[in-house]
């Protein structure tokens, strides 16, 4: 076995002739401690003025407990608020927790990979010092580089990992891929043989690597997009996707597909829409990718891609003069296209994604096509966090005759974003109560309770209303995570507490939780000094409305 290991090492030594270039092309991490070398904990992808947490964020955390908490981070974030909070924590560099923190460091990088933060993970891995040779961290780094379309860097990550006598199956497959796509079939075959000897053979990878290396079988396998290596290998081998090819795609696989111009359509458009929905690519990148979808691709496109086509067609057509005092036909057509995609959103995550995608378009509209659209645009502006535009659009919806029962929750969400202080919070709470009526009293009580958790003044009438109308709807947050969150707050363990708030909310975020769970999370975050995150969670929970019990 030792002889075979040496043979494999010799064979893969030349897999990436651009290794020197790969090192030069790596992103630059942000230094958080100028006088000490960066490591797996001090390296950061977020500067202090961008919202990074203080360097002592892990000061009061046990590394073994922290490893368990990091392992609980979601793979899918339905909530922009909890995603933002998780990113703040995971991207922040600081002092390592006291004790043996190596396992927790691996979990930190795994959480970044599950999240799909390809660029930030690559940046942080590049600055992790000796930790980059850790076999687990190297695997996450390689997957991130594959998602970014940087094959040379990915191959270098795999080659430089300290694998010992038993390389993981992923690294063996990565080495075979790196050899196959560069024309070295002998090295690819040797890597696959080593995988067989290690009981890590996989028929799909064997067939796909053969096809990528120019020796496809009689019946090449269908494309697979479950991880970034499988995605890039499927594209390199020109494998055809089967039914529902993105059903099990990781976030990094979605990024890989979205960023590869050679990916098949409409799968590339679908991946871009999903990656944007999960918050792992930005608005401009998503619009660029979706805008590049060939005109002949008309089926199975995501709703935001269809709406973008309509908006682009209107904006690039010759202008048509509007009647005096009326909105232009172009503005009304754009508004109709955006309103349709917002109306089609069947859950808060889809609505929030559409709102962010068309935020600038909504801000530039002259008027709404109808009253219902005016309310949708106001709600979208609140969801995207643009308080100035949201305030203007809420007022426009009121002028259009929208019912207070529809607008009062928007006022409450706006008060939450502003910190639930002063007269605005008092007025918003009273409006929410007055507009609810008997049928919606318990849903209104949920919103009022959430505002109270943010510190809104709850006078006697508000307290009587909550006592008479128990807040309605929602599931209980993870009980274990809530108990642990209370302990973290008592210890002032900021990073750990923030992650536990994310774990308590779960993949669905605050939109699915009952009022008491949301209130507990909000109060914990405020105690830890994370007021802005508490506001965003509160606003998101209110805007989503009372969930089913």
Structure description:
60% of the residues lie in helices and 0% in strands. The chain has helices spanning 2-12, 19-25, 63-71, 80-91, 102-115, 118-126, 135-147, 151-160, 169-181, 185-197, 203-212, 228-236, 251-259, 267-277, 283-291, 303-316, 329-344, 348-357, 359-363, 371-383, 387-399, 404-417, 422-436, 441-453, 460-468, 479-490, 494-505, 515-527, 531-544. The chain is globular, with a radius of gyration of 26 Å. By secondary structure, the protein is mainly α. The longest helix is centred in the middle third of the chain and has 16 residues, at 329-344. The model is unreliable at 1-27 (pLDDT under 50).
How are the elements arranged and paired?
Blueprint: H1 2-12, H2 19-25, H3 63-71, H4 80-91, H5 102-115, H6 118-126, H7 135-147, H8 151-160, H9 169-181, H10 185-197, H11 203-212, H12 228-236, H13 251-259, H14 267-277, H15 283-291, H16 303-316, H17 329-344, H18 348-357, H19 359-363, H20 371-383, H21 387-399, H22 404-417, H23 422-436, H24 441-453, H25 460-468, H26 479-490, H27 494-505, H28 515-527, H29 531-544
Helix pairs in contact: 1-10, 2-8, 3-5, 4-27, 4-29, 5-7, 6-7, 7-8, 7-13, 8-9, 9-10, 9-11, 11-12, 12-13, 13-14, 14-15, 16-17, 17-18, 17-20, 18-20, 20-21, 20-22, 21-22, 22-23, 22-24, 22-29, 23-24, 24-28, 26-27, 26-28, 27-28, 28-29
């Amino acid at each position: 076995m030792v002889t075979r290991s040496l043979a494999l090492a010799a064979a893969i030594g030349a897999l990436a002739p651009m290794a020197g270039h790969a090192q030069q092309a790596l992103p630059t991490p942000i230094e958080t401690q100028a006088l000490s070398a960066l490591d797996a904990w001090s390296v950061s992808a977020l500067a202090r003025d961008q919202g990074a947490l203080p360097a002592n964020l892990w000061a009061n955390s046990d590394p073994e407990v922290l490893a368990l908490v990091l392992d609980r981070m979601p793979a899918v974030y339905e909530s922009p608020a909890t995603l933002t909070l998780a990113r703040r924590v995971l991207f922040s560099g600081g002092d390592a927790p006291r004790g043996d923190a190596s396992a927790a460091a691996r979990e930190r990088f795994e959480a970044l990979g599950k999240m799909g933060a390809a660029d930030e993970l690559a940046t942080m891995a590049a600055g992790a010092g000796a930790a980059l040779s850790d076999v687990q961290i190297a695997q996450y780094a390689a997957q991130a580089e594959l998602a970014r379309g940087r094959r040379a860097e990915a191959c270098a990550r795999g080659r430089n990992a300290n694998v010992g006598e038993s390389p993981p199956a992923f690294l063996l497959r990565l080495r075979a891929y790196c050899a196959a796509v560069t024309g070295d079939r002998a090295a690819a075959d040797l890597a696959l043989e080593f995988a067989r000897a290690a009981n890590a053979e996989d028929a799909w990878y064997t067939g796909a690597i053969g096809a990528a290396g120019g020796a496809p079988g009689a019946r090449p396998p269908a494309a697979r997009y479950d991880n970034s290596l499988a995605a890039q290998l499927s594209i390199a081998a020109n494998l055809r996707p089967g039914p529902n090819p993105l059903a099990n795609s990781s976030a990094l696989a979605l990024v890989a597909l979205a960023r590869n111009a050679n990916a098949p359509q409409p799968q590339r458009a679908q991946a871009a829409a999903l990656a944007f929905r999960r918050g792992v690519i930005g608005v401009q990148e998503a619009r660029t990718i979706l805008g590049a979808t060939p005109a002949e691709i008309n089926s199975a496109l995501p709703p935001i891609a269809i709406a973008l086509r309509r908006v682009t067609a209107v904006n690039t057509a010759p202008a048509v003069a509007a009647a005096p005092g009326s909105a232009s036909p172009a503005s009304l057509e754009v508004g109709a296209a955006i309103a349709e995609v917002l109306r089609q959103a069947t859950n808060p995550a889809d609505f929030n994604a559409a709102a962010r995608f068309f935020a600038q378009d909504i801000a530039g509209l002259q008027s709404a096509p109808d009253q219902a659209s005016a309310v949708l645009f106001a709600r979208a502006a609140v969801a995207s966090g643009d308080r100035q535009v949201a305030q203007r659009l809420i007022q426009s919806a009121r002028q259009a005759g929208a019912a207070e029962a529809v607008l009062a929750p928007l006022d409450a969400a706006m008060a939450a974003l502003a910190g639930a202080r002063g007269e605005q919070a008092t007025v918003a709470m009273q409006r929410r109560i007055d507009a609810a009526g008997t049928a919606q009293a318990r849903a209104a009580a949920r919103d009022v309770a959430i505002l109270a958790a943010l510190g809104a003044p709850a006078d006697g009438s508000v307290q009587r209303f909550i006592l008479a109308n128990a807040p309605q709807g929602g599931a209980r947050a993870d009980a274990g995570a809530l108990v642990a969150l209370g302990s973290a707050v008592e210890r002032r363990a900021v990073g750990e507490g923030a992650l536990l708030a994310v774990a308590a909310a779960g993949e669905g975020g605050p939109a699915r939780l009952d009022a008491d769970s949301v209130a507990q999370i909000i109060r914990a975050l405020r105690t830890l000094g994370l007021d802005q995150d508490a506001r965003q969670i509160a606003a998101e929970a209110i805007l989503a409305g009372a969930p089913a019990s």
